[in-house]
Amino acid sequence: MVMGSNVSLAALSEHADSVIVRLGWESPTGEGDADVSVLLLDGNGKVRSDTDFYFYNNPVAADGSVQLLGKAPTADGSEDRISFDLTAVPSEVVRMIVAASRYEGARFGELEGVRLSLADGTGEELLRFAIDDGDSMSAIIFGELYRRGGEWKFRAVGQGYDTGLAGLATDFGVDIEDDAAAAEPQDDVGIDDRPNTAAAAPTDLPTSQATLAAVPAPRRSGDEAEPRQPTGRPRTAKKRVTLPKAAKKTLAENESWREARLFPVSALKSDRDRETRATSVLLSVMAQVPEFGRSLTAAFGAPAGRMETFTEVTLPHGDSPRRPDGVIRVERAGKLWTALVETKTNGNALKADQVQAYMDIAARRGYEAVITLSNDVALEGSPLVEVKIDGRRKHKVALWHLSWAEVAHQAQVLIRHEGVGNAAHAWLLQELLHYLQHENSGCHGFQNMGPAWVPVRNGIDDETLCQGDPRALEVVESWERLIRQVCLRLGGELGQKVLPVQRARRGIDPKARRDRLADQLCLDGRLQAELRIEGTPGVLAISADLRTGRLRTSIEIPAPEQGYPLSWAKRLVRRLADAPADLHIETLLEGQTAGPRGTLERLRPEPADMLPKSNTTQIQAFRLSLFKNMGSTRGNAESGFIRSVNDAIHRFYTTVAVHLDPTTPHRSLSKPGSTRA
Questions:
Q1: How far apart are CA 194 and CA 370, in angstroms?
Q2: Are the CB atoms for 149 and 156 separated by under 8 Å?
Q3: Are 589 and 620 in contact (CB under 8 A)?
Q4: For 192-217, what is the mean pLDDT?
Q5: Whether pTM exceeds 0.85
């Protein structure tokens, strides 16, 4: 689409009652990002109240019409996803604005590939809109969904604001109480002066009548102990319950007593038992905890409504009836959304013939989706199972995949960070999480580097691995799955976004990118990845050298713009007072020449040893690194390489990264309370 054009959703798809809007962009540095927001407008072009403004602290509409699903990795970086259930939108809402904003003075011109795409309930992409002229804009209206003649349409807007989210929100009537407006900007509120849009607003966009706007600022990543002042905008529509971080004191007489569990695992003797139990446990909790069920199904095009789940359902299929592991049904306004579920545990692979049969059954019966669940992690452009779609059928069925790691991640985020409706729901999710994490459940996530792992390591050791070897590509794909799972686990623990960074040209084919990485593995024997963790001052890099059997985790801290180098060095050493003594610190100099380096233990008494001997040499950054031996096991078990990677990243973050000031690049290392990088 081009700016200003519009299209009827019904004309594009029969399954447009629910849609997924994706906003994407790439950052050349791997650190740039933006926050998405949605505004619901009435016939006057204004929000009915501040609760019609959806953002990261108010991500879900009570009626299920809007849900911000967060970020998902893509081949080019990541994209934000927003789910719209158009059947649940109140009748007085006539337009829904989809926007994104940057922070800390950043502009969209610093990002590449700024775009919007819209998919229907089956996951099929219906339209795409690229924004090419957002250079000076700090907020952009990407598009809007609006009612016209009893149907929903989409308009590609591309309207920019140089006053950020404040200018945008004020134009549509977002306001806060006067006492909050007089306060200093806090965690969730930022105050801006009279906004001015950077471009002339279209005739159907209302102009601001307010002189002051207060809108949520980007999430801070400072100390949790920092007091928060109440804001005029509610954080959620309802009070949320999360489990306490500290465990209650046990009443057991001794450590041998085992706590009674809702979902026991002791009776699980076979893979079939594990699959049956895991499916029943998951589907029952999804039906009983609406927030959890919705968080897992919204991205699949399911509406927000009453959910019921079933197991071991028999469905006709030729001469031999099929029994999918589970069925999910969601009812909304008299309409049913149905998905068949196929489950695998304990590292067992999905079977293409089973999935194909369920796709055929779903198409014949008018079901919307087939959902597969296993320990494996799906990669873009590399499906876990190949299925054939009969183009003669009018009804389309979407095929989706969930890994058990994603299920555990969603449960962890809800009960430890975002909260659920009541204490009983929090307890149910805690029991589910305990079950999934138990060693006997078979739901451990990705933990097998595959049959090519040992031959590739041997080929690197004896220098017989050649470029183009398909086994190297298998290892690269397994490495990418492992990194995505690490992001899920760490993000669930922290309650922050953790995403893999893909430094690839926009539009490059995922397979071509992996082929290039496989060739690089054959040349230098290294697997490398980068993670962007919200609140850290740089990108966390992980490198696995298969020749030496060593893992290196590191982060680069940009040098401050002001002050003296000796002050920078002393301040950094003070920040790392509780970091491991074997932490390596390297000074990166202008022109990429080698600089001073040493362990923290050696540099603590003499921070000046971090500085170059020449006063004219410009310091670019400081690189902090920890080294760890890979697991001694050369097999496929998690006890070897996979566990080593998990432990290395977890140790680096908890012992090094948490001590660093969450500053943006080229800001003072000592500035407290800075927003994220």
A1: 50
A2: no
A3: yes
A4: 35
A5: no
